[in-house]
Amino acid sequence: MPMGCVLLGVCVGLVMLMSSGVSSSKFDELFEPGWAMDHFVYEGETLKMKLDNFSGAGFSSKNKYMFGKVTVDIKLVEGDSAGTVTAFYMSSDGPKHHEFDFEFLGNTSGEPYLVQTNVYVNGVGNREQRLNLWFDPTSDFHSYSILWNQRQVVFLVDNTPIRVHSNLEHKGVPYPKDQAMGVYSSIWNADDWATQGGRVKTDWSHAPFIASYKNFNIDGCECETTVNAANMLQQCSSSAEKKFWWDEPRLAELSLHQSHQLLWVRAKHMIYDYCSDAARFPVTPLECQHHHHQH
């Protein structure tokens, strides 16, 4: 890569002011359809993506980001959604990619939707957690967010933390802070595994399956993808000259209130945690030996 590209590459720290226009609730200012354009329906500020037996659909952010907070309001597929998966995630490119996932696993009518989260670092995932939500995600819009800085990745539902992936580099655990990530969402048929381990298949007589979105919000450090990792990290980190909100000390870990919320979620709503799956991981993964001791 010619040096010129590296030096020209910039990450723009976006201010938190809503008036900046960056935190636009309009889909087309931040995102674009990624595939199956004919499976998108625009109704005012609401975007609907549909899955039928021809195709699913997906969208992606126009830019890539390093640190910040991404939020979207989603209303999941109503009625029988068995076999379907709706995903909202951040990901970098390439085989050694980083990725933060929300995957909403559909279910037969009356059964709760399951939310699966996962974190990939350097192309390696296998960090699944699953939980039931404390509301019906198909009856109304709820906000789903990913907060990401040099200290932690936090998954939030209606601003309640449901998962934290902390920076434990001091323990030799790699942490995702060297690759800019795009923001994506998609809906597709995954009836080989999505519902009850693949036992319940998609009932196409109930198609189309529709996921609805609104209030798109990205407040982060926007990056040119030509920049090398060290430059990107530097440009998106606070220094004497510039202060970025995601580097504020209070965002280095959960607040006491948030810690209590997370404990409640884990106690009342978590149904699977890779950290306690001794069959898969006879030796507890390093990052798991930490998170029960916060505060």
UniProtKB/TrEMBL annotation:
Q: In its keyword annotation, does this UniProt entry include Secreted?
A: yes
GO MF, one annotated term: hydrolase activity, hydrolyzing O-glycosyl compounds
Explain the post-translational modification. Answer: Contains at least one intrachain disulfide bond essential for its enzymatic activity.
Write down the superkingdom of origin: Eukaryota
Q: Show the GO cellular component annotation of the record.
A: apoplast
State what protein this is by name: Xyloglucan endotransglucosylase/hydrolase
Q: Which family does it belong to?
A: Belongs to the glycosyl hydrolase 16 family.
**Species of the source:** Daucus carota subsp. sativus
Q: Which SUPFAM superfamilies match?
A: Concanavalin A-like lectins/glucanases (SSF49899)
Q: Which Pfam families match?
A: Glyco_hydro_16 (PF00722), XET_C (PF06955)
Instruction: Report the main location listed first in the record.
Output: secreted
Entry EC no(s) = 2.4.1.207
Kindly list the places in or outside the cell where this protein is found, as annotated in its UniProt entry.
Answer: Secreted, Cell wall; Secreted, Extracellular space, Apoplast
- Signal peptide residues on this chain, from the entry's feature table: 1-24
Q: Which PANTHER family match?
A: XYLOGLUCAN ENDOTRANSGLUCOSYLASE/HYDROLASE PROTEIN 8-RELATED
Enzyme class, first EC level, given as a word: transferase
